[in-house]
Amino acid sequence: MTTRMFGEPVLRREDPRLLTGQGRYLDDLGPRALAAAFVRSPHASARIRDIDVSGALDVEGLVAVYTWEDLPEQVGAPLPLLIPHPALTHGRTAYPLARDLVRHVGEPVVMVVARDRYLAEDACALIRVDYEVLKPVVGVEEAAHGGLLVHADVPGNAGAHLVQEVPSAAGLGAGEAIGRAPHELSFRLDIERSASMPLEGRGVYARWDADDRSLRVYSSTQTSTSVRMAIAARLGLPLPSVEVIAPDVGGGFGVKIVHPWPEEVLVPWAAILLGQEVKWTEDRREHFISAAHERGQVHFVRVGFDDEGRVLGLDVTILHDHGAYTPYGIIVPIITATQLLGPYRIGAYRVEFTSIYTNTVQVTPYRGAGRPQAVFCMERTMDHIAAHLGLDRTAVRAANLIQPDEFPYDQGLIFQDGRPLIYDSGDYPESLRMIKELIGWDGFPAVRAAAEAQGRRLGIGIGCYVEGTGVGPYEGGHVQVTSDGRVHVSTGLTSQGQGHETAFAQIAAAELGVPLERISVVTGDTRRFGYAVGTFASRAAVMSGNAIALACRKVRAKALRIAADALEADPGDLEISEGVVRVAGSPGASIPLATVATLANPLRYAFDEQAARATQFAATPAMDRPPVAEGEEPGLEGRDYYSPIRSTFASGMHAAIVETDPETAEIKILRYAVVHDCGKLINPMIVEGQIHGGVAQGVGGALYERMVYDSHGQLLNASFMDFLMPYATEIPHVETAHLETPSPLNPLGIKGAGEAGVIPVSAVIASAIEDAEGIVIDRMPISPSDLFHLRATR
Amino acid sequence: MKPPPFDYHAPRDLGSALSALAEAGTDGKVLAGGQSLIPMLNMRLAAPGHLIDINRLAGLDTVTAGPDGVRVGALARHSRVERSAEVAAAQPLLRQALRQVAHPVIRNRGTVVGSLVHADPAAELPAVLALLGGSVRLARAGERERDVAAGEFFTGPLESAAEPGDLAVSAFFPASPPRSGTAFRELARRHGDYALAGVAAVVSLGEAGEVVRARVACIGVGAVPIVVDVTSAGRPGDWAAAARAVQDRVEPEDDIHATAGYRRHLVGVLAERALGEAAREAADA
Ligand SMILES: Cc1cc2nc3c(=O)[nH]c(=O)nc-3n(C[C@H](O)[C@H](O)[C@H](O)COP(=O)(O)OP(=O)(O)OC[C@H]3O[C@@H](n4cnc5c(N)ncnc54)[C@H](O)[C@@H]3O)c2cc1C
């Protein structure tokens, strides 16, 4: 029992199922459903002149073809702008099927439903769309000039413009502080596009029950509750008649928090209209050209600092490439702008971003969500300062760190949740000490020299970050103990492989004193829990973890009340372990939770022996009060919610040693080290797994992945053959160490860990390559070919 | 990503395979390991009306290694050829190359002969066949089998001398003369990917250790494997001049993964490394 509680590296309970092919992913469901497929725009910018579907009508097995004209008003209306913001003055979203204009390659134009996907694709191939091809807007700088427009009514292609300013303690603005600083530098930094790219794409499967007029939808989503509300609203159905379930989901990484996708509206609509089950499973090319991308940003940095490298003023101007639409608002650039300062105390700060439309796939958060760009800016800045002053890079960082006694530390900014950005806890100097020790920072010159003697070229790099996690508004948990002694936990947010079934069960086991084996966890099923926000922003453990803990505490208190009655003891003298309530210190006096659950639900009918114990003639009831006491409810269950005052801030530092081949310009990561602080650890093994996966995605972003658009707005590498997501063979062993500074904001003292691993990787690798090569690295990712050409400019 | 409709044929003997191919003509395609063809079908980049699956044909999976070289049947998978000790003894370059072809699971299905017919300009095996001066044996309904020399077999990117109606039944990789060494060096962005550029080398030394013959074949830097004889430029222990000669001969192009300039540079580095390694192996032989 003691080995199966909070903080233990319990093996993931979902793994046997997921690793032996027993998972139930979207496409495993509904084998007899009709299949949907889409005709998508082959052009980045075009006007639809005519759609001729007649060719498709001969395809045997064709069931239906829909264009925008066929959609009822609510179904065909533009998709919602999910997160409005005053600075997003020109937010634009797409129609579920293109109405007259297409604004990126991949935009859906016609929906086809057929007996199977093969036939649906055959039919798609026979539909002729007549386009008037327009010149597309590609490249964020090109777009910012505003010569050509993505949306005719958005001048300069600028969807949003936001400035945040934090003056120095002496009241100086950033410009003035930089002007007065002993040293000043300015430079430009670029990060290219990548994407969440879950191995399972999106997918929707809808079943209409004509008898009781209810709809069940399965979606590979990060938010089933919100998809449900969106579908009910769009299709005009009463909310209680709609159920949405996220089955096993093969990765989300951000892209599946966007909703409702066109397909999430159209597939249920068609299922109702046709009175038949309909399913759409996204294929890889569709995912590349019609889901979402992220990361593409250009940053202009100006910094003023003193002789110790302390930053006195920082001014950052950001061009954010938003793609064709803004369904998720401006969350990504807001996060870049507000998380840029990392673990540092900065004199004065000014940040400005403009969010620019281009004729490319829309941009929405991808794991890290603007932070990899932010950290790239700040950490490259630290390295530039160190190089300018001839100081050790870690010394410059140390000079700027917020000290442990300065918490809570208010950065003076408004975060992505609309609340003040106040760091709740942390120990950054200790983190720096640990990462230097783990990677062997101080001993590196000797390592480098030894390698050099063999003709090898090594470099070391470091990167630090602070990550706001666990954003609100809330999550809930429901915990029910049934009369067989089992504990059923449910929460509304969804799982994409993070290990929630294990981590949430550990929390419940610890709170309730019940063996882990007796606890089951359900997530993302609106039949079980209807109120939720979703899984994103490293929030599941913080939000649902705490909500479940609070719900368990309610259940525990109730169990103790009932048990105290039965045992004629004081509730304060009771404890629960191994699923049994005992009077502390008197071994004989105990009652299993199963029995408590039975007693909690007074019955008239005995359907089994256990139930018989709760029936009206079985016990000697107190005649002076009703069977269900006042203020109580039947059943041993509890529901509670956790709604934080603001986000909690996790942090970490990464370091790497890379080797560059002097001849081939190959780049190899020899060592990768991570010090990570996410407050109290529920399960250190799961946290490490999250870090490993995050680092792997970070390595992808640093060395392999880019979205290559040509001047016509065609994505040239829309397949796994040419979009170089790294294999396991490209990922170094990740050495980790944990630091635990509990969050004072929530009952469990935890912080989010889901995105952390990915955040500083580009900054770290750039730092290390720069160190190895002596060439300034100011854009990522970098390939051997890029490095070869950079060397030529040296 | 579902293939367009096609008729599927699964003949059990060579004769019916050849007649099915003959009947289908330009509308037919051979399906071997499927590791290149199936993705092309699914992406609708190819739309043959008839697929002739040769996987059930008897007798095409033989691999025979002898003093002359190695003959590989059309159904011999990459992995089998890679692991065969006899093959490695007869012509070590095959194993050296195959280890860099894709990933183990793909090598378990993909065939050596299929790879030759597919003729991807970045594929390893066409370079091996070209370098060694091997040949591909083609069968056709109503005609005698014929051997096509590597030099004539690779005609362009994804183009070979195997015409519609032809079935490649085997390929022959000659052994190298005594006191020879081989090497295959390449650089791929990720393990198992098609290479940005690669160089296969064979070096044969004389009694006194002098270079008798040195040749390379380059991949990823031209429409077909580019074979360069560097015998005159090569000296044991110094292949820099030879590498420059190779660089001058290749015709790389820019793509999204690397520039032409980088590829040309890379071919030089890889050629020098491969020739040096082959020469050392030859000296030890
Ligand atoms: C992820 C991935 C990575 C890969 N990486 C590499 C790599 O690094 N290097 C490399 O060389 N290859 C690579 N490949 C390709 C792999 O080696 C293929 O197996 C090979 O190119 C084709 O062999 P196959 O048996 O699968 O042929 P198929 O896919 O079945 O056929 C390919 C083509 O050849 C024709 N064909 C096949 N056999 C015959 C025959 N006997 N007679 C006439 N025509 C025939 C087919 O009609 C078709 O046009 C990779 C494949 C994948 C999926």
Strand and helix layout:
The complex is a heterodimer of chains A (794) and B (285).
Chain A: H1 15-19, E1 34-40, E2 46-52, E3 62-66, H2 73-76, E4 101-102, E5 108-114, H3 117-126, E6 128-133, H4 140-145, E7 158-166, H5 174-180, E8 183-191, E9 203-209, E10 214-219, H6 224-235, E11 242-245, H7 262-274, E12 278-281, H8 284-290, E13 297-305, E14 311-323, H9 331-339, E15 348-357, H10 371-389, H11 393-400, E16 409-414, E17 420-423, H12 428-439, H13 444-453, E18 457-469, E19 475-481, E20 487-491, H14 500-512, E21 519-523, H15 540-567, E22 574-577, E23 580-583, E24 586-592, H16 593-599, H17 609-612, E25 636-642, E26 648-660, E27 667-677, H18 684-704, E28 734-738, H19 761-773, E29 779-780, H20 784-792
Parallel strand pairs in A: 1-12, 8-29, 10-11, 14-15, 20-21, 27-28
Antiparallel strand pairs in A: 1-5, 2-4, 2-6, 3-5, 7-15, 8-13, 9-10, 9-12, 13-14, 16-17, 18-26, 19-20, 19-25, 22-23, 23-24, 26-27
Chain B: E1 7-9, H1 14-24, E2 28-31, H2 37-42, E3 50-53, E4 63-66, E5 69-73, H3 78-83, H4 85-90, H5 92-98, H6 104-109, H7 112-118, H8 124-132, E6 135-139, E7 146-149, H9 150-153, E8 154-156, E9 159-160, E10 167-174, E11 180-187, E12 197-205, E13 211-219, E14 226-229, H10 240-249, H11 260-284
Parallel strand pairs in B: 1-3, 2-3
Antiparallel strand pairs in B: 4-5, 5-10, 6-7, 6-10, 8-9, 11-12, 12-13, 13-14
The structure holds flavin-adenine dinucleotide.
Provide the structure class of chain A.
Answer: alpha+beta
CATH topology of the largest domain in chain B: Uridine Diphospho-n-acetylenolpyruvylglucosamine Reductase, domain 3
The overall average pLDDT of chain A, rounded, is: 96
The shape of chain B is globular
Give me the side-by-side strand order of the main sheet of chain B.
Answer: 4-5-10-6-7
CATH architecture of the largest domain in chain A: 2-Layer Sandwich
CATH architectural arrangement of the largest domain in chain B = 2-Layer Sandwich
Total count of strands of chain B: 14
Largest interface: A-B, 29 and 26 residues
Largest sheet of chain A: 7 strands, mixed
Distance between the terminal alpha carbons of chain A, to the nearest Å?
A: 62 Å
Question: What string gives the helices and strands of chain B in order?
Answer: EHEHEEEHHHHHHEEHEEEEEEEHH
**Which CATH first-tier class of the largest domain in chain B would you pick?**
Alpha Beta
